Amino acid sequence: MDPVLDVDWAAHWRALVEARWRGAGHQESFWDRRARRYALSMRGQVDPFLEFLEPWLAPTRTLIDVGAGSGRHVARLTPRLDWVTAVEPSPGMRELIPPSHNLTVIGCTWEEAEPAPADLVICVHVLYAVADVVSFVEKMERAARERVFVVLRDEPHRHPAALLAAMAGVETREPRLRDAFLVLRQMGIAPDLAMFTYPVFHRFESLEAAVDDCRERLGERWDESRGRAWLEANLRRDEDGTWVHDGGSMTSGVLHWQPRR
Ligand SMILES: C[S@@+](CC[C@H](N)C(=O)[O-])C[C@H]1O[C@@H](n2cnc3c(N)ncnc32)[C@H](O)[C@@H]1O
Question: What is the mean pLDDT of residues 196-224?
Answer without folding.
Answer: 92
